[in-house]
Fold this sequence. Notes:
The complex is a heterotrimer of chains A (313), B (355) and C (536). Chain A is mainly alpha-helical and 313 residues long. Chain A has helices at residues 7-36, 44-62, 65-89, 94-117, 143-148, 152-170, 172-182, 184-189, 194-220, 232-242, 247-270, 276-294. Chain B is an all-alpha fold and 355 residues long. Chain B has a domain at 78-281. In chain B, 71% of the residues lie in helices and 3% in strands. Chain B has helices at 16-40, 45-57, 60-85, 93-110, 116-145, 149-169, 205-222, 224-234, 236-241, 246-273, 284-294, 299-323, 329-348; strands spanning 6-10, 350-354.
Amino acid sequence: METILSQAFMISLLSATLRLATPIIFAALGEIFTERSGILNLGVEGIMLMGAFAGFWGAYETGNLWLGVLLGMVVGGLMGLLMGFMSVTLRVDQVISGMGIYFLGLGLSSFLYRIAFGIRTVPPTIEGFGETPLPLLSRIPILGPILFRQGIPVYAAMVLVPLSVILLYRTTLGLKIRAAGENPRAADTLGVNVFLVRYLCVILGGVLVGLGGVVLSTAHLKMFWENMTIGRGFIAVAIVYFGKWHPYRTFAGALLFGGAYALQLWFQALGAPVPHQLLLMLPYILTIAVLAMVARGAKGPAALGTPYKRGEA
Amino acid sequence: MKFLRLKLEEQPTPSVPMRVLAPILAVAMALAVSIALIVLAGASPLVAYASLFKGAFGSVASLAETIAKATPLMLVGLGITISFRCRVWNIGGEGQLIMGAIIATWMGIALGRMPALLLLPSIVALGFVAGALWGAMAGVLKAKLEVNEVIVTIMMNYVAIYGLNYLVRGPLRDPTIAGGFPQSPRIAPSAELPRLISATRLHAGVLIALLGAILVYVFLFRTPLGYEVRAVGANPRAACYGGISVMRSIVLAMSLSGGLAGIAGVGEICGLHYRLLDGISTGYGYTGIVVALLGKLHPFGVILAALFFGAMVVGMEAMQRTIGTPFALVLAIEGLVVLFMLSGEVLTRYRIRRV
Amino acid sequence: MKPEQGFSLREAKAGAAVVEMRGITKRFPGVVANDRIDFEVRAGEVHALLGENGAGKTTLMNVLYGLYQPDEGEIFVHGQKAALKSPRDAIGLGIGMVHQHFMLIPPLTVTENVILGLRSSKEPFLDTNQAEKRIADLSKRYGLKVDPQAQIWQLSVGEQQRVEIIKALYRGADILILDEPTSVLTPPEVRELFVVLQRMAEEGKAVIFITHKLHEVMSVSHRVTVLRDGKAVSTVETGKTDEKELARMMVGREVLFRLTKKPVPKGDIVLQVEDLETLSDRGLPALKCLSFSVRQGEILGIAGVAGNGQKELAEVITGLRKATQGRVIIGGREMTDRSPGEIIEQGVSYIPEERLEVGLIMDFSVAENTILETRRRPPFSDGWFLPSSKTWFLNPQAIKRHAEDLISDYDVKTPSKDVPVKQLSGGNLQRLILARELSRQPKLLIAAQPTRGLDVGATEYIHSRLIKQRERGTAILLISEDLDEVLSLGDRIAVMYEGEIVGIVSGEEAEVEEIGLMMAGAKRMNMESQCSGGAK
Lengths: 313, 355, 536
């Protein structure tokens, strides 16, 4: 029992928290952009799965990890484009189209995986992203191993968070995005191309979500299987609410969930007397609790989920 | 579309032929895309679809299987119809079905000595209650705290799945099976739903489903409570103005919705498998959504759509057996149907005019 | 209202035409909003575009601003033919528009709202410092005081309008369109606005001023174009016409300004409001220590500029909003903070301000809408699951009969009782709501903006029905921004300003001047009931 509270344990736990949170961070950042522009994309889970498959398959077939990453980004972007077409051009109900994209992504990723790899006794794996400790920085006591002895995806996530803040709050494009999500009519009258902005955001969102999936299959688990995200995409959406659509707060929320996953793995490894299924439930129950606490206050972009049509009186 | 000297002009109401055609077209488009995927899988579309048809309709046994597979879809679809009509997005069919299945199993084992005439209706009733409670939780969260029900119901699906996982490996595991295979003991014969055609798997659950369709129709269109549920879905502000309790309608819709899914779970245990297993719900909760949408949220349409998807499921299983096309294709098709249905609805709102 | 003092007689300028619209036609499903309209504006003038609601003024200007594309016709700006496919094009040509419903983004700052959509000097990054400086300059030059760093939701309505004007000027607009700018301002703010417009005209800008208020046209414009039913009736020099002539052009016939009302004996008090207080959606006080009463057979008109708490008052009385203090007593019963259902049971009917969003369910049929409040009552049903009820079901025959009765009694034009209500025109929608609400023979009727946006015929019909209801003994609370309506219908008139009742006068003695001052907050009457200050 002494080992539970030792420094080594804490460092290992925090490091795992950051690492496990990373796919969710990517997905949540992507969803922030999408929702800030006014589109509610509930198909994140499906896009993440497609990204996971594409990344894995690309890396496996070409032997080049980065080509896998690129493929995952492209596939995510394409699915974002599809969502954009449904939401911006056709202006259909975003909740239902999100579900459609979820089913499509779930089914298509499983289908393509089976076709590509068939049924094998030993599932294919790749080497994926290993640890890339940063020189010097990783030697800092305590913080070093947690922050700087991670894989490249983790570093990318940590950089993307402040970059997102800059994009949203300090650039003309960011201003347009925020305007499109709050009052698209007003933005339109000022010459902002709301349709273009929303397409851009939902595609960018798709790319980031796809990246989240790629990270899952190439960095974490180094393989792919059906429905491997098991709800992480939806958790990412919940985290965006929790973080009130701001990258820093969302990052904190993602860490919370990373922590839940990490704890769960640890209890299992320690052979704790709790049935592991109950531990597996933890992130999901946590999500519900978080939403219940936060939902009343969270208002979000005023035009979220409402399609924009010119010429409405 | 100026260059074609055509333009899309909006119409206030969709033309009637388009409204009927839209679901059919959506399905056709989705199947067309699936053909491309089948080719990608290295199979011939003709052979693939032939085996699908044969699997679903080829014999009395296949037809029975199709209807048996359609039964839970009918029930879940009916439940989702109620909730979607209230604009409450119940994506939790999986979990609610599992809850009903768990109760059915427990009662079927523990109360096996009761006579069937007493036991079966009790199981159906309590299965309904179990699913209703599971759904009501999300309903209350939405009504009182404005929590997004999509995420909550999906989270509860996972909780239910892991719960099921735990039960069939622990408290409800059948100790007599060698190798510790995760399944429960068989339910007592008095808890079994009678088979309608011997040597097939078609069970009385389908009768419950058909009865359910009639009840749901009456509820939605012929009772004040159903009116209130629909009004809240169509315009919650006006409903509130008219003196309708929006909160109560939301919780009611989620409860009824969950309850019907719970009965679907009862049907799977008492009519089909006779014991609890992992994967008792193979995506019925999600397919039920597509069934409800395809049936245009009308009870009778839902029955037809459920039969269609029952055929798809049985047919795809046959396809996987004979030519090895992965079963996951069904899910992809479902997604495509949803997307094409939505697109179709848009097109029914427009008319093409010469400029 | 008399024209504002202080403006010298203006002559129509002989300046160059900066905007010419020729033969503009714009159609929407079921209506021709603009029918071959010719319209031109010159530099250095304030040109009023006058017409009733629905005459096509806003549509025409939306075409000029690039929000709509005309089906026929041409537009010339500064002599060049212009293809205005979007507001971007219009802005590029120097056209700016201040909309009736502000196009501002509440969580963003003034500066962010102003520079939205513009290229920054530090692309891709925003340059808020430079922008703030320019805004301060414009602010001083035209007398538009505003704090560049404030967030929009913190500003008053008048300040928000100034932001809108600065937005247009910042983009170099020399043609400024204002759509009903005074509908949300108090009289002093209106005067300030007119000074601003005057200054712009003097600087050579062209100002187009959309309004339906005759006195504004007379106060501030050089020329006026009158639209009626989508057509341009005529363009005249303001100095050479008067209100009566303009009114005739606007309406096409002599306008009756007062309705005849029979004296009706006033009965018991039906609605008593005591020291009522509540908060607005933003959490600011909307009603402060409000007290009044309405008797049987009486119409109490509540006058006031929009945004002074009228909406919140109607919502508190009908149970759609919670009060923070005070009481609402209906028919002698305490009805504060009860649910809308309970209040409806007390015999209260409500014609809401937002007809489409609140008063009707667009996707439901006409028949289904008629039973919105009465779905649980006989003969439509006998309640729900109580063991004592005879039926759990809706009675289709009773519903059918009721719907058909209402449709014929109130002359609602609809293809049938089963069509979705969204197919009906605005006037018929209002008739349907009126029919439904009045057919319950209410003890108390709350009517909020009952004739907003309706044509003269529909308005007259609704007024006559309200008067008939008054003769039947219903107590009516009429809340309206249309002072003429309140004056002609009200037995007593109460004026609301910033959440308080600043005066109650009897209908016969009411003087427009005095009421105008009260509406602007410039005058208060001594009201008997002071706030008790205690909790409920």
